[in-house]
Amino acid sequence: MINKLVEKIQKMDAPVVVGLDPTMKNIPDYIIKKAIEEYGETLEAAAEAVWEYNKGIVDAIYDIVPAVKPQIAMYEQFGLEGLKAFKKTVDYCKSKDMVVIGDVKRGDIGSTSESYAIAHLGRVTVGSKRIAAFDEDFATVNPYLGTDGIKPFVDVCREEKKGIFVLVKTSNPSSGEFQDRLIDGKPLYEIVGEKVNEWGSDCMGNDYSYVGAVVGATYPEQGELLRKVMPKAYILVPGYGAQGGKGSDLAHFFNKDGLGAIVNSSRGIIAAFKQEKYAKFGAEHYAEASRQAALDMIEDINSARK
Ligand SMILES: O=c1ccn([C@@H]2O[C@H](COP(=O)(O)O)[C@@H](O)[C@H]2O)c(=O)[nH]1
């Protein structure tokens, strides 16, 4: 899957992933109203609105954006109905040939990580059959439990030719509380970066490993260092747009080949119609606003990496 991701980024000239992070606050009122008319004020209505909203965005961007990153929390808040909308979204994006990164941030003791890996990237055995449940192409993984929490994901990635992005230096304001702590003179994020390199060394695609890393756009200096520490890891870069990251901060997240990083924006794209810059589209044309915001983002990122 890492090869497909790289090929799509090259073909579309777009190192960009759109985060499908639907909230009731950002879904246009007319979509919510229609869903409530059909299902009442229920979780089913919320899930239907989420799905309609996502479908509109995916239809508007699938030909210019290589990948999506649905954030599972936004679906879980609607319980089982929300998870059904998550799965429907994953399947729909895949039917449009988009690469799907499940932002699920899993990781536990080995035996539990194995089940998480099976749930999101692998196949579960039922009688004589092996069935894929959520079936994303990549998943985000929390490394806090160490190697035995990561290994089951790596094993499934090797078997299924899928991938993971390990949290190395997150984009949020408090990320330094633990991640920047010095251990024997080195920040923890650098030590995790070195482990990403090690975990990914024996599961390589053509040029990049199945094991990638998450490094926030809000920390460009750390991004530059980590790019060198993990030369073969694709870096998923959240924090662009709504969290303040800009294209000009990102040049050093990329390798000399112009590859090696994919930048995420969620609210900045899916709720573009609410920004003054795209207000002319109006809520009814929210998906067209998202397409324009994605085109602008691609131009901004490309001007930094070339
Ligand atoms: O370090 C991290 C890791 C993950 N995220 C996730 O990315 C998106 C960002 O959303 P925006 O609306 O573009 O701010 C969201 O799903 C986060 O959970 C992150 O922001 N930082």
TrEMBL record:
Residues in a coiled coil are none
**Which residues belong to any copy of the Orotidine 5'-phosphate decarboxylase domain?**
15-281
Q: Give the top-rank taxon of the lineage listed in the UniProt record for this protein.
A: Bacteria
CDD domains, sorted: OMP_decarboxylase_like
According to the UniProt entry, its GO molecular function terms are: orotidine-5'-phosphate decarboxylase activity
**What EC numbers are recorded for this enzyme?**
4.1.1.23
- EC main class here is lyase
State the reactions this protein catalyses: orotidine 5'-phosphate + H(+) = UMP + CO2
By sequence similarity, the record places it as follows: Belongs to the OMP decarboxylase family. Type 2 subfamily.
Report what the protein is called.
Answer: Orotidine 5'-phosphate decarboxylase
Question: What is the organism of origin for this protein?
Answer: [Bacteroides] pectinophilus ATCC 43243
